[in-house]
Automatic annotation (TrEMBL):
GO terms for biological process: protein transport; vesicle fusion. InterPro entries: NPSN/SNAP25-like_N_SNARE (IPR044766), T_SNARE_dom (IPR000727). Keywords: Coiled coil, Membrane, Protein transport, Transmembrane, Transmembrane helix, Transport. The chain crosses the membrane at residues 215-235. Residues 143-205 form the T-SNARE coiled-coil homology domain. It comes from Coptis chinensis. It is a single-pass type IV membrane protein. It comes from the Eukaryota. It is found in: Membrane. This is t-SNARE coiled-coil homology domain-containing protein. PROSITE patterns: T_SNARE (PS50192). Belongs to the novel plant SNARE family. Residues 45-72 form a coiled coil. GO terms for molecular function: SNAP receptor activity; SNARE binding.
Length: 261
């Protein structure tokens, strides 16, 4: 920092602020290891992410200041400043990697600072990071980003395919339930018709039984009347009020064929 003070007060101040944030990040991650509650870990990790975001902004200001002073400094000074910048970037990236590890353990599924394509980390730091990378490193980084993008697309395809399959299964299940309900309704109609027909048949049988009982009762009364007449005729055969019943009356006087009269 003394060398930076001799070159530029602005660079020295930026370096001091960045160093303070690095110390805060180091202490924060050490405390994070002792926290067991996942929600509390998540909150502390968000605070550390905010500090890394601020550190990234300061490093970008440091890079702009170095470029502005590049024409006024010697080659050795510019080399020292670039090495200092790369050292700051490397240290920040180490905390980024540590943050990703904790985020993965907490199963945090969001695109955040330094989280790759579409995020506000490396995508915003192209000028800063690219200035400290070789062509091969830039190509490797680009390939890695493309691979990550392909993986995201494949996962999205898998989600869409699973959603379509679930929709097809749901439609098939609904159709099967609809068919089953139709069969149940038809069976209920058949049962209702059978019950109605059976009720009518029971009524017809009841009327027929009532008619048969009346006939039986009438025949019974007639039989009782005949038996009563027979009994009276047997008891009092000379009763003139009771007409003769064939076969039961007293024998009439018959004239013998051989009667001399």
């Amino acid at each position: 920092m003394d060398q930076l003070s001799a070159i530029s007060v602005e660079l020295a101040e930026l370096d001091g602020q960045i160093s303070d944030i690095f110390r805060a990040l180091s202490n924060g991650f050490q405390k994070l290891e002792k926290v067991k509650d996942s929600s509390r870990q998540s909150r502390q990790l968000e605070e550390l992410t905010g500090k890394m975001r601020e550190c990234k902004r300061l490093i970008k200001e440091f890079d702009r200041e170095v470029k502005e002073q590049e024409s006024r400094n010697t080659a050795d000074t510019n080399k020292m400043l670039n090495e200092k910048k790369q050292s700051l970037i490397k240290e920040l990236n180490s905390y980024v990697a540590l943050k990703k590890q904790y985020a993965s353990n907490l199963d945090i599924k969001r695109v955040d600072l330094f989280d790759g394509p579409g995020g506000e980390g490396y995508a915003e730091d192209n000028g800063l990071v690219a200035s400290s990378m070789t062509n091969q490193q830039m190509m490797d980084t680009g390939n890695n980003m493309m691979d990550e993008t392909d993986q995201v697309i494949e996962r999205s395809k898998k989600v869409v395919e699973d959603t379509v399959n679930v929709g097809a299964d749901t439609a098939a299940a609904l159709k099967a339930q609809t068919d089953q309900m139709s069969r149940i309704v038809n069976e209920l109609d058949s049962i209702h018709f059978s019950i109605k027909k059976a009720s009518q048949l029971v009524k017809d049988i009841g009327r027929q039984v009532a008619t048969d009982r009346c006939i039986m009762a009438l025949l019974f009364i007639i039989v009782l009347g005949v038996i009563a007449v027979i009994i009276v005729k047997l008891v009092n055969p000379n009763n003139k009020d009771i007409r003769d019943i064939p076969g039961l009356g007293p024998p009439a006087a018959r004239r013998l064929l051989w009667d001399p009269k």
